[in-house]
Amino acid sequence: MADVNELQSLLGASEELTIVCHNNPDPDCLASALALGRLAASAGIDERRILYSGDITHQQNRAFVNLLDVELKSFDQGLIVDRPEGSLLAFVDHSIPGANNAVPEGTAVDIVIDHHQAEDVTGRYVDHREDVGATATILTEYVRDTGHDIDATLATALLFAIRRETLGFLRGVTTAEYEAAGFLHAHADDALLNKLSTPSISGATVDAIADAIDNRSVNGSVLITHVGRTSERDALPQAADYLATLEGVQTAIVFGIVEDTIQMSGRSTDARINIGTVLDSAFSDVGSAGGHREMAGGEIPLGIFADYTTDEDQLVTIVEQVVRARLLAELKLDGKGDTEDA
Q1: Which domains does the chain have, with CATH numbers?
Q2: Is the pTM here over 0.85, yes or no?
Q3: Using CA atoms, how far apart are residues 252 and 239, in angstroms rounded to an integer?
Q4: Residue 37 class from Cβ within 10 Å (0-12 exposed, 13-18 middle, 19+ buried)?
Q5: Burial of 223 (0-12, 13-18, 19+ CB in 10 A)
Q6: pLDDT value, residue 55
Q7: Residue 45 Rama label (left phi>0; alpha psi -120 to 50; beta)
């Protein structure tokens, strides 16, 4: 475990901090960025920014940003490549340049705080703990152990992030999450937590989840489905969460076309399957994918698929066939799924 005093020393000796979120940031990433920014402010860093790429489309994520007034800026590569001396670059909730982020591969990162599976994580300060359930848990420990003043906004952000990342303390949770939640509970705004937990849902998200239900096929305890083309990227993990609860299903993988990429989301409670490893092995040669044993995601550029045909239905069919075939091969399934009794 890294020593938070080393982080404080690094922040105290610097003048500027750029925190980069992973693509399409979720509450765990956003809350962690918010907390690191607060720690940097207390260390005397006045120039701070949080950058993100992709979209924030999940209704909970939008509510999180709006209700907690998280100040975000669109990713600007110039702020990364042309950093002045005394400027720090930090990753929270991800760790490798070019993997699920817009930072050029090979870029030197100063601070990395993450809980996802990854290899060869480097930085001047690295706290990479795959054995905790959320990056927000690590940042909560920093806030608590350094005696940093915590207000209702920060406490609510971190507590909501831990709850969301662990699906209400039901997935990937450890003792550390309960201890963090116990500390945060006394400072959090209960009314704000309720608002974050019950945001409105768009009709497009409902339609995408319905398509995932209609297109599902089941091989043993593995369910694979797609939503076709959608503007609602975050409908995929919501569909995966829901379909993973179906009777007899232990692994659910949902994919779909979002703009010029194929997005994927996987969930698994099968002890024999590490869904992060499955997606990475199946698609690392054509895109980026990975995550945890129980939850993972991935992104593949449409590439040759988009050049092959201008017919949207044909494009969806081709993508469905290729992605499904790769998943079945990686999972060593025969592909004779049951689409009627799933």
Answers
A1: 4-197 (3.90.1640.10), 203-331 (3.10.310.30)
A2: no
A3: 9
A4: buried
A5: buried
A6: 81
A7: beta
